[in-house]
Amino acid sequence: MKFYAKGNLTVWDKEFDKALCHFKNGIFETKEKRTIEKLMKSGYKYELLAEKVEDISLKVLTVAELKKLAKSKGIKGADKMNKAELLEVTR
């Protein structure tokens, strides 16, 4: 998953008291589940790629992101589903 920030930035992981990641020229890429979830919860902009979603917990996605994911998987009626329904059909 690709994340975006301004410039060169180090994000600190308070839980482990070490650097979580380093943005270079505003971009950071990772496949590590914990890092993805932490950055998403922290509000960093990211590129949601359907083929990479299995690596993260779907619970951190917004309803809009879940609807987009459901559509990319060919699930019909996703526009009318709530978050619980979307979580169920996108697993």
Account of the protein in words:
- There is one protein chain.
- α2 (63-72) packs parallel to α3 (83-90).
- The protein has helices at 33-41, 63-72, 83-90, and strands at residues 2-4, 9-13, 18-23, 27-29, 45-47.
- By secondary structure, it is α+β, with helices and mostly antiparallel strands.
- The two termini are 18 Å apart.
- The model has no long low-confidence stretch (mean pLDDT 86).
- A hairpin with a 4-residue loop joins β2 and β3 (18-23).
- The chain folds into two domains: 1-55; 61-91, no CATH class.
- It has three helices and five strands, in the order ββββαβαα.
- It is elongated, with a radius of gyration of 14 Å.
- It has a three-stranded antiparallel β-sheet with strand order 4-1-5, with no helix packed on it.
